[in-house]
Amino acid sequence: MPVSPEQEQALPRFVKAIEASPDNQNQLNALNTIDDLKALVQRIEPALTGSALIPYEQATSPPKITIDSGVLAADIPWRLLRCPGGPLVLQMICNNVNFALWIEAC
């Protein structure tokens, strides 16, 4: 079952929550493991159930469809992209890890 546009709003909400908090940005830059990422995401935006650490090459490859992008104050580049035929995905490049977040469909 596809995720509704309303549910997908959890991704921009996550970006805004991270953007509004230097502490959250510092925590992102300190992440080292997928478990650390999941704990932080669960605290900030529990609707984001899909997550993966991704290689730098994947995090910087040209996306098919970019929805939005930017760079946070703590020098964390991010982008929302639409995978062809797939979900809306948030990618972020942090000091120690790069990751993707999405909402898993039921």
Describe the 3D structure:
With 106 residues, this protein is of the alpha+beta class. It has five helices and five strands, in the order ααααβαββββ. The chain has helices at residues 5-8, 10-19, 22-30, 34-44, 56-60, and strands at residues 50-53, 65-71, 77-82, 88-93, 98-102. The chain has a five-stranded antiparallel beta sheet with strand order 1-5-4-3-2, covered by helices on one side. A hairpin with a 5-residue loop joins strand 3 and strand 4 (88-93). The radius of gyration is 13 Å and the shape is globular.
From the structure above, extract its key features.
106 residues, alpha+beta, 5 helices, globular
Summarize the structure.
This protein has 106 residues and is an alpha+beta fold. Helix content is 37%, strand content 26%. The protein has a five-stranded antiparallel sheet, covered by helices on one side.
| Uncertain regions spanning at least 5 consecutive residues | none
Quaternary state of this entry equals single chain
Q: Span between N and C termini?
A: 6 Å
- Count helical runs: 5
Question: What is the average of the pLDDT values?
Answer: 92
- Please outline the major beta sheet: 5 strands, antiparallel
Q: What is the 3D shape?
A: globular
Number of strands: 5
Helix content: 25-40%
- How much beta, percentage-wise? 25-35%
Layout: helices, strands, pairs:
Elements: H1 5-8, H2 10-19, H3 22-30, H4 34-44, E1 50-53, H5 56-60, E2 65-71, E3 77-82, E4 88-93, E5 98-102
Antiparallel strand pairs: 1-5, 2-3, 3-4, 4-5
